[in-house]
Design brief:
Helix content: under 10%
CATH superfamily: Lipid/polyisoprenoid-binding, YceI-like
Oligomer: single chain
Radius of gyration: 18 Å
CATH class: Mainly Beta
Distance between the termini: 42 Å
Order of helices and strands: EEEEEEHEEEEE
CATH architecture: Beta Barrel
Largest sheet: 8 strands, antiparallel, barrel
Number of strands: 11
Length: about 180
């Protein structure tokens, strides 16, 4: 017995981010034993869908970074990490958006700290739903892992046992709720 794969099509139109119901976060292993997490408060995204497919674009303002330790925050703005003086935003533009059922595969170019790399994210698509008084909505939940050193984020400190203080792999998670314009 074979089962057909259902391909979901995003309804045509432009979908703009609902900032109150969207977020972008990151996580990286610290000291080999814990996870350091952060997020960005200033997030923008747009999904444009038509007969030829869909394109997702997004930006975050690096200065809107939110981390638990305010002593670390200024270091993240330096050339060791985001280099906000020269690169105030993180940008993304998709080159492929495939949805089968509710499963998403998103490929595109991520520009971070002045470097551009191809990245692939996977996740879930939900919607469309009609929200009374608001209109039609869709949502994307996406996850990817990048190597921070691919973006020139090479800062490192050795722990007393010689192991690195900060892992290279960084997990990214983006939750987008989008309103039809």
């Amino acid at each position: 017995m074979t089962t057909a794969t259902e391909t979901t099509r995003i309804p045509a139109g432009t979908w703009a981010v609902d900032r109150a119901h969207s977020n972008a976060t990151f996580a990286v292993q610290h000291a080999g034993i814990s996870i350091f997490r952060g997020s960005f408060k200033d997030l923008d995204a747009k999904l444009e869908a038509g007969d030829e497919g869909a394109v997702l674009t997004g930006t975050v303002r690096v200065e809107s970074i939110d981390v638990e330790d305010e002593n670390i925050r200024p270091h993240l703005f330096t050339p060791d990490f985001f280099d906000t003086q020269r690169n105030p935003e993180v940008r993304f533009r998709s080159t492929e958006l495939a949805i089968e059922g509710d499963q998403v595969r998103l490929a595109g170019e991520l520009e971070l700290a002045g470097a551009r790399q191809n990245v692939v994210a996977t996740g879930v698509f939900r919607g469309p739903v009609e929200v009374p008084g608001v209109g039609e909505k869709v949502a994307l939940s996406l996850e990817a892992t990048i190597d921070r050193t691919d973006y020139g984020m090479n800062w490192q400190m050795d722990l007393p046992d010689g192991s690195p203080a900060l892992a290279n792999d960084v997990s990214l998670a983006v939750e987008l709720e989008l309103n039809k314009e």
